[in-house]
Amino acid sequence: MLRATLTALTLLAALPAAAQDRGGMHMNNAMSELGAIQSNQGCPLSATSVTVGVNNAMGGGSSAGQQLATRGGGPSGCRPLVSTQVVTGANLALGRGSYAGQAITAQGPGGVLATDTYTRGYNAGYGALSTANQRLINQTGH
Question: From CA 101, how far away is CA 124, in angstroms rounded?
Answer without folding.
Answer: 10
